[in-house]
Amino acid sequence: MELKYQGKTKDVYQLEDGPLLLKFKDDVTGENGVFDPGANTVGLTIDGAGRAGLSLTTFFYKKLNAIEVPTHFISSDIENATMTVKPATVFGKGLEVICRFRAVGSFLRRYGAYVEEGQKLESFVEVTIKDDDRLDPPISADALTELQILSLEEYETLKQRTVEISNFVKAELAKKGLELYDIKLEFGRDAETGEILLIDEISGGNMRAYKGSEYIEPLQLEKIMLSK
Amino acid sequence: MELKYQGKTKDVYQLEDGPLLLKFKDDVTGENGVFDPGANTVGLTIDGAGRAGLSLTTFFYKKLNAIEVPTHFISSDIENATMTVKPATVFGKGLEVICRFRAVGSFLRRYGAYVEEGQKLESFVEVTIKDDDRLDPPISADALTELQILSLEEYETLKQRTVEISNFVKAELAKKGLELYDIKLEFGRDAETGEILLIDEISGGNMRAYKGSEYIEPLQLEKIMLSK
């Protein structure tokens, strides 16, 4: 099996018969030894972080596949921290699609003149481009089409899917007494059919969750969500 | 006459019978003694800069009013560097609407992974919020409506007007052998009727112009455009 790509938190292997194998690592993003899903650098290694992220990802993907949301998920092997997925090509060099239910993080940093910290937002969707050197800048629908990263029709699909998936995740968190503040998703085009698929992971590292006014760290979130 | 507001490059006075009087100052934005229209700080004072900016602004506003583009312009007094305008309220705390014909400046800094410097763009419109502390961040149509800064209908009007006005200015520059790379415009709502008006100035300080591969500084641009 051939190593195709080494990511910050996952390695990607090509399987012989078509699918890809994602190996979840114990490296997590953060700065100064603190796990920060919004950070661009790998800050520390936590034993079991890969398996925990994969467990929650598997939990959500199985539910999403069951309601027929198109995703790249085929199967997972928690013990070995691997997930088998359909190959997909990303938009441009990769986009992150964020859905916000409360104004925190980079949204608050940008628009603090117009919102209070934690103010409710209406399933607000925005896109950022994955570009560590340029600090993942936000990009408008018009700029995405102008730069031929995607078509306006594809943008509308991404936006609708993001609202749908994010509200699904929000409802799952609510069952455990948690509130989803924001979540970032990734999409790609199915390498065979061109269909738009949800890709990458859906774990604590992709979202900010609170219990009342208390921020729940990614590993804690995974523990709460997967407890019986 | 009452001083209402002191800006970086203009002071605003309330006239008794309704209109406002804008006094163009000789202070220009820039850093380290270099006139830079994109800068947020007043860097230097150039004798005659206020009158030069007003002259070019008057040139464009008279032409725009003649083709019935709604603007705040009533009249100007070049000698005293003042312009009389209809009062208008800005959107939120003020927006800048940028039309780009070539990828330079902050667009290139943000999206350099997808464009070459100077690459042609199709009358590309984007909006930034005026917020010196947050370095005038770009903002999407969705965020503008989410934050109730304007309605989606108003956004579409701004965008259409921006394309129309910017292409008009581009054509005027082309008559003098100059190429417009980008321009930033401001709009407001007519304080009486609510109609969307083009406001502020349209001078060298609002645009980037080139003659072949040579950048033309704002004061030089004003000289070229107003020469017979």
TrEMBL record, chains A, B:
It catalyses: 5-amino-1-(5-phospho-D-ribosyl)imidazole-4-carboxylate + L-aspartate + ATP = (2S)-2-[5-amino-1-(5-phospho-beta-D-ribosyl)imidazole-4-carboxamido]succinate + ADP + phosphate + 2 H(+). Keywords: ATP-binding, Ligase, Nucleotide-binding, Purine biosynthesis. GO terms for molecular function: ATP binding; phosphoribosylaminoimidazolesuccinocarboxamide synthase activity. Residues 4-216 form the SAICAR synthetase/ADE2 N-terminal domain. Its EC number is 6.3.2.6. InterPro entries: SAICAR_synt/ADE2_N. It holds the Pfam family SAICAR_synt. The keyword Aminoacyl-tRNA synthetase does not apply. Gene3D superfamilies: ATP-grasp fold, B domain, Phosphorylase Kinase, domain 1. GO terms for biological process: 'de novo' IMP biosynthetic process. GO terms for cellular component: cytoplasm. Pathway: Purine metabolism; IMP biosynthesis via de novo pathway; 5-amino-1-(5-phospho-D-ribosyl)imidazole-4-carboxamide from 5-amino-1-(5-phospho-D-ribosyl)imidazole-4-carboxylate: step 1/2. Belongs to the SAICAR synthetase family. This is phosphoribosylaminoimidazolesuccinocarboxamide synthase. The lineage of its organism: Bacteria, Bacillati, Bacillota, Bacilli, Bacillales.
